[in-house]
Amino acid sequence: MTLSPSPGEALAASGVTIREAGPDDAVSGVAPRWVALPETTGEVAALMRVAAEQSLTVVPVGGGTKLHWGPPPTRCDLLLDTCCLNQILEHVAGDLVVRAQAGVTTEALAAALAGAGQQLALDVPVDGATIGGTLAAGTAGPRRLRYGTARDLLIGITVVLADGTVARSGGKVVKNVAGYDLGKLFTGSQGTLGVIAEATFRLHPLPASRAWITTTVPDLRALPDIAVIAGSQLEPSALEIDRPDLHGPLTLAALVEGVAADERAKAMGELMGEARIGSEPPVWWGRLPGEEFLLELRVPPGAAVPALAAVLRTAEEAGDLPVRVRGSIASSIIQLALPPDTSPPTAEIFVSALRSGLAPHGGRLVVWTAPPEAASRLDRWGHVGAATLMRRVKERFDPEGRMSPGRLVGEAPPAAPRRVRSERS
Amino acid sequence: MTPAMAELSGHFLSILGPSGVITDPVRLRTYECDGLSYHRATPAIVVLPETAEQVAAVVRACDRTGTPFVARGSGTGLSGGALPRTDGVLIVTSRMRRIIEIDVANRRAVVEPGVTNLAITEAARPFGYYYAPDPSSQQICSIGGNVAENSGGAHCLKYGFTVNHVLAIELVTPDGEIVELDAMDPGYDLLGAFIGSEGTLGIATKITVRLSRAPEVVTTLLAAFGNVESGGRAVSAIIGAGIVPAAIEMMDALAIEAAEAAVRCDYPPGAGAVLIVELDGPSAEVAHQFAQVERLCQESGAFELRIADDPAERAAIWKGRKSAFAAVGRISPAYLVQDGVVPRTALPRVLAGIEELAARHGIRVANVFHAGDGNLHPLVLFDDAEEGAGERAELVSSAILDLCISYGGSITGEHGVGVDKSRYMPKMFTPEDLDTMQLVRCAFDPKGLSNPGKIFPTPRLCGEAPGVRKGVHPLVASGEAELF
């Protein structure tokens, strides 16, 4: 009779590179015991089968740039690092399609595609992000106005479920309605449904030229009409706003790209008034306004300016909280950075009051990151109409609750904040 | 009608009143098929709700009694997605036709599911906006049906599909709850997963769509080529030049012949293929790209180019293409429409393969396709009076899908799987893929009542463990459950 192996032995026997976790591997303060470095989808599946047999909780990680987003996992035995899933598997330039492993960074992908004059038209807010992590976190950037977000560009996906099942949906053709679109489901899933192993995207040609048009105005009232600019026949690819100081000036920047971009940039400059035109983006373009205490507000496009007014008013009421504002004003997805030392009660008041302020516009406010003290008091998601359906999906995909437990959107945070620290030095 | 159905229809009468419930066998037959008329089934009851609350009440009654239900919009679908169940309820959305709001400030429209695709564009047009997805049936197809099928259209090459243009949906879940899915919500993109689920995850009762700015300039070009190969070269050259046209459509000689017979579209005589290329956007960009497209067509062997700058000329060019499906009725007593997709670079090889298949089986195939995205609509022509012709046509049609799959393509680009193609799903997906999709189904519809029998071939019951599928399920054999 053989003794059943310990989890460590079973992981080692999977044939996948495994190492003991160190303090640097902690996920929002929750220390894993092992880190796995699979190189193929098959290896991911082998790991997940072991994790299932050994009842291990698993948190997938790509570049780790957004690993601290969302609530901390309630437990993490195995950190599944996709860094070695770093191969571009197929790029058929004539089809404008690329298939790649999840751990490929967006920079590496961009470099590989540029040779063919092509791009994945998806901006990432932090350097070093992988395509898998970008999908799981559902991030996008300025050019969402023209190209949509990750879910609009993803045409096929391969995932590995908690029990090791490898499943694929979509394919490598742009137009395809066969079967359910698992890619949509995994976009924004924060590692709670399974591991994204491979993704296939539709590509766009690199634009012939680009021009950025910027203007700075003293306050919200002085902003040019956003609806007129966004809806203009000049077809801006992006329209962004930056306000580093609560009461300071605002900078509005538009991107036009393609053939005859310079000509359109001039016309755009006239629409925006007193504008500068350049071939490089402003330094803040497409970057987060802060990473330690990051909120994101989403409203219908016509409500962007009223929403910004609500931010200003709420921040003033919270004792002139110095909120930094940046984001896609035409798409009405705006990031807010709060000072990391904001007192937890102030943060709580700000979040709850701003949610009330956005409610008449049908808006949302998500708390992506927060210092631990504040995080334990904040409702991260607000009301999510589909929370029950999301939970039902989660229960089907991961009935034992082993995938990034506690990170599901809409899930109530644990009653008492749980802080687990590595016991090893 | 069974006593159980009689009781259910009595309950529906109390919810919907006499004008909202149909049980008369003659009237029921009106609903026995959708646009794919060779699949027919007369529903036990048809209901015509006017509000989401009525839909929810009907669905709750179905849930309580274990009665399958099928939603139907205008019934224009081409895969039998709205094929009724003889033992079930057909929920028709044709009375839910209100355009609730054209919200120009937020560039969106809020509509009920029975509103036609084109009606949204017509309501938005006075403001300079339109609804981008444009399936050929847009004059009659409903937006609810578009959501179910994730409908595309000729212009989806540049503008995407229904899923790229829907911002929010109110739906009635298969257990009768009213739930909002919104693109602004964090978490799983359930909105995206619901769109294209062919009525198997619930019924959309209110839909918020994005309105797009009408482009500054639209220019359309018709290029005539000696054969499909040279037309295909032009398509590759245009895409290779980094141009994303609003549409690139191709028709082969047989499709042109049919269109000429039906609508006298007056395409250049002697053309073995015609290509329609439409560019839209800012005028400076369109002018520049149009010159490129003209040159690339000529270099690829086009012998005649026609350019349309105004709506009338554009309509003349599109007339032949838009009539193509119906037009083949002029040159063939019967036909099957296929909807396969291949990677664009595989088009020449796949078209040659289709030609070879057609020759081998003595069947004519007319090709009409969205060349830009590799979506083929081969029209397999046959004479249904001729013995065995229907079977040979089926054989060719099925072999075309095999060909598409072998090139890494899809069995359906825009018509959906429905009942028509569910048997091909295992050719495109592994059992694990299909089981995983089934998890989504079970999350939304654990009892399997919402449009059962569509998309998936013989799915397992929710809760059943994966394993080798053999014989009849014990619960089915014992009569305790029905495996849809």
TrEMBL record, chain A:
Question: Which UniProt keyword terms apply here?
Answer: FAD, Flavoprotein
Taxonomy of the source species: Bacteria, Bacillati, Actinomycetota, Actinomycetes, Streptosporangiales
- Note the superkingdom of the native organism: Bacteria
Q: What is this protein called?
A: FAD-binding oxidoreductase
Pfam families registered for this protein in UniProt: FAD_binding_4
**Does the record's keyword annotation contain Flavoprotein?**
yes
Instruction: Name the InterPro entries for this protein.
Output: FAD-bd_PCMH (IPR016166), FAD-bd_PCMH-like_sf (IPR036318), FAD-bd_PCMH_sub2 (IPR016169), FAD-linked_Oxase-like_C (IPR016164), Oxid_FAD_bind_N (IPR006094)
Chain ranges of the FAD-binding PCMH-type domain: 27-206
UniProtKB/TrEMBL annotation, chain B:
Asked whether the keyword Lipid biosynthesis is assigned, the reply is no
Known InterPro entries for this protein?
A: FAD-bd_oxidored_4_C, FAD-bd_PCMH, FAD-bd_PCMH-like_sf, FAD-bd_PCMH_sub2, FAD-linked_Oxase-like_C, FAD-linked_OxidoTrans_Type4, Oxid_FAD_bind_N, Vanillyl_alc_oxidase_C-sub2
Extract the Pfam families matched here: FAD-oxidase_C (PF02913), FAD_binding_4 (PF01565)
Domain of life the protein comes from:
Bacteria
The answer to whether the entry has keyword Oxidoreductase is yes
What are the transmembrane regions?
none
Obligatory cofactor(s) = FAD
Where's the FAD-binding PCMH-type domain? 39-214
User: What UniProt keywords apply to this chain's record, in alphabetical order?
Assistant: FAD, Flavoprotein, Oxidoreductase
This protein is called FAD-linked oxidase C-terminal domain-containing protein
What does the record give as the organism's lineage? Answer: Bacteria, Bacillati, Actinomycetota, Actinomycetes, Streptosporangiales
